[in-house]
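Researcher: Next entry in the queue.
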Amino acid sequence: MPRSENRLSDNEERCIARWLSERSIDIPSKNGRTMQMQILRLYECRSVNGLPLDVLVAGRASKRAPTRKFGVIFSQSKPEQQYPIDVYWARLLDKDGGRVELTQLPG
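Model: Structure for this entry, 107 residues:
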């Protein structure tokens, strides 16, 4: 369920700040492993094509890899919407935003 207000929580802000300071984000790959994506651009946003979205990321797995764009939604419950881009559901696992579980949403 998307958040009722358009503001990120302090813990979500800390999580984004950590991604920015590390310049990378670990996302699940299709084979079940974790892939580290180098962050080229990160935008906080409210929606994409009218669907709720918290973060839009442009990143790549290596210097030679093509740039991928994907979104991140912070929520305790899995969103039901289908998106026109790859979107990951982020669920915070601790109170300081240090650990987050990302799950790719169908789309």
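Model: The mean pLDDT is 88.
Researcher: Noted, moving on.
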